[in-house]
Amino acid sequence: MTDSALPEDDQTPPRRRGRPVQMDQETREELVLDAATQMIAERGLEDASVAAIARQVHMSKRTIYTMFDSREALLGACFARIGERIFRSRDSQTEGAPLEDRLRHLLTLNEEPSLNEAPLELLRAVITSAPTYPKLACSILETGALSLRTHIARELSEAAERGELALRPEQCDPAAEMLMDMAFGNGIHKLLDPQRYCASPEARATRRDRAISLFLDGARPR
After folding, report:
1. In which residue ranges of the chain is CATH 1.10.357 found?
2. Residue 110 DSSP label
């Protein structure tokens, strides 16, 4: 499903009676991104067309295209925001805490009830959209898993500089990826059998803590 720059079937939704509500550009964009996020989480990427989003927010497609110049740009902004909500970044409050605690902070996904199974939809979107929208697929990775890997690699690198870990600088990125795989599991399995592999928050926390413990036992100096 694709949307051209300004499709011929663009129709402005019926006007509501009364004085129209005035919104600034930022508020409009937030409204559109909220609708797109909910649509992706509930119905998947293919149903999140510009036309459907426009109907949801009572705007015309033309109005949306003044904010995002393509469907790919809109979905890219949407996924960037989803990634920021779900994945954590380094926190100044954990600075000075033990390495285990800093890694635990990064490897804990934020619970976003409104997104439901959005992490799974993110992975599905990366796979299904990659051939048609390669730039979108790359942006999903860059604002999600790759961004998180960068934060973890930085923690590992700084710990190695302090002598806490026996890692060379060039080993930190692959080590961060390995730790993420250990903590989160195989996403392909979750796509194939979500009922079996989508664990509870408690089970995910147990796996995360075990992964950190096993990883650090193998990475600390002997």
Report:
1. 77-219
2. P
CATH class of 25-75: mainly alpha
The 8 Å CB, 24+ separation contacts for 95-102 are: 99/155, 99/159, 99/164, 99/165, 99/216, 100/212, 100/213, 100/216, 102/155
Which DSSP state fits 97?
S
Architecture, CATH, for domain 77-219: Orthogonal Bundle (1.10)
pLDDT tens track for 86-138: 888 888 888 889 999 999 999 998 876 555 455 566 667 667 777 877 777 77
Long-range contacts of 93-102 (CB under 8 A, 24+ apart): 99/155, 99/159, 99/164, 99/165, 99/216, 100/212, 100/213, 100/216, 102/155
Query: Which are the contacts of 197, defined by CB distance < 8 A and separation ≥ 6?
Result: 185, 186, 189, 190
Spatial distance between the Cα atoms of 183 and 210, rounded to a whole number of angstroms: 8
Residues in Cβ contact with 157 at an 8 Å cutoff, skipping those fewer than 6 apart: 167, 169, 172
pLDDT tens readout for residues 132-146? 777 777 777 777 788
Residues 6+ apart with CB under 8 A from 72: 133, 135, 136
The secondary structure of residue 138, as a DSSP letter, is: H
